[in-house]
Amino acid sequence: MLYQIKKITIENEHKLHIDYANGGSIVVDFNPIIETGGILAKLADAEFFAQVSIGENGRYIQWPGEIEFCADSLWFQSHPSANKFQELKGQLLSEKT
Fold this sequence. Notes:
The protein is built from four helices and six strands, in the order E-E-E-H-H-E-E-E-H-H. A hairpin with a 4-residue loop joins strand 2 and strand 3 (about 25-30). By secondary structure, it is α+β, with helices and mostly antiparallel strands. About 5% of the residues are buried. The chain starts with a strand and ends with a helix.
């Protein structure tokens, strides 16, 4: 299943509320991501953070300068049990040993 973002709302302290087409929603805290530094440190600036937008077909969120986060990845970070690929990967790795 491909996840599609319908709406994003900026919350306080570098957080986004993200609404999905499946009716679900998540809140993503970008502070740990900002702390990794590099190009992602730009997200610490409130004016820059506010420039977030939804990418093509709702498949990602984006900021200027090619900073993008996949809709699926964001969903699975908040719902790890929904990621059937991780279960399959674990099964495949255990079968090899």
